[in-house]
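Structure (tokenized):
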């Protein structure tokens, strides 16, 4: 069973690359951001709490996220890509405990390194498909949908995420530096981290990822 963890700042291309990797290696794409956005649409106390945290660029509590992840992994018997998890050292520790209890290998842990100014530009033009999750960018030629505002894959109308504005981006980036970047040292010290540059085209980044994942 092949599992992959992508660690990266916001808008580094986790979702874009997860989609390509899931197709190439037949892996299930698990995005905790997508799971949380879906939970945030419920008209209940939990939904409102999650929505507030996402819109403000803060992290949702480890307990909520780990519960959602456990549900997503329950009964899964194929490899998967974790996009956006773990995001804190505590989440990583809990996840490693879970794997060891279930006797599941960790797989590839890959850090996508990319400068802040590059991702800020990507945030501004991003459009996502609310139906199939495909990701586009109306400011980057290679990532534009063929028909303006319409998903190439399922023809749904594309939307802009509410947290895709400059102010929330700055907060998301700050949260990343404080809470998530320490995972780089955490996994490095365990000797399991590979690093690639995310400041490349979509295809070049995909090639680098395949060099790591395809070799094992
Ligand atoms: P999440 O949904 O995970 O957001 P994020 O980490 O901020 O990452 P993004 O989805 O914004 O970016 P991405 O890396 O997927 O990039 P994409 O491929 O779209 O999390 C959202 C929120 O949920 C968090 O803020 C937090 O509140 C909560 N949350 C989630 N997980 C949590 C956890 N584990 N614990 C606690 N809270 C959690 O690409 C971005 C744009 O760039 C697109 O327009 C794309 O077309 C373009 N692009 C991609 N690659 C390239 C390229 N190579 N060249 C040019 N353009 C490119
Ligand atoms: Mg994403």
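Design, position by position:
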């Amino acid at each position: 069973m092949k599992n992959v963890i992508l660690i990266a700042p916001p808008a580094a291309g986790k979702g874009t690359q997860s989609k390509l990797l899931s197709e190439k290696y037949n892996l299930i794409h698990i995005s905790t951001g997508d799971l949380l956005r879906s939970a945030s649409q419920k008209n209940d106390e939990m939904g409102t709490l999650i929505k507030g945290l996402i819109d403000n660029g803060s992290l949702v509590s480890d307990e909520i996220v780990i519960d959602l992840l456990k549900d997503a992994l329950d009964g899964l018997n194929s490899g998967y890509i974790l996009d956006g998890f773990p995001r804190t050292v505590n989440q990583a520790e809990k996840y490693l405990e879970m794997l060891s209890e279930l006797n599941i290998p960790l797989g590839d842990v890959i850090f996508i390194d990319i400068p802040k100014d590059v991702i800020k530009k990507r945030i501004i033009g991003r459009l996502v498909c609310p139906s199939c999750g495909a990701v586009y960018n109306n400011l980057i030629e290679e990532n534009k949908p063929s028909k303006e505002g319409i998903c190439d894959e399922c023809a749904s109308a594309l939307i802009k995420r509410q947290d895709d504005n400059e102010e929330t981006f700055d907060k998301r980036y700050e949260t990343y530096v404080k809470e998530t970047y320490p995972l780089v040292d955490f996994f490095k010290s365990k000797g399991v981290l590979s690093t690639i540059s995310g400041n490349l085209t979509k295809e070049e980044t995909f090639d680098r990822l395949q060099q790591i994942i395809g070799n094992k």
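Reviewer-requested clarification: The longest helix spans residues 166-180. Residues 8, 10-16, 32-33, 36, 53-54, 57-60, 65, 84-85, 87, 91, 122, 125-126, 135-137, 140, 143, 172, 200-202, 205 surround BIS(adenosine)-5'-pentaphosphate (ligand 1) (CB under 6 Å).
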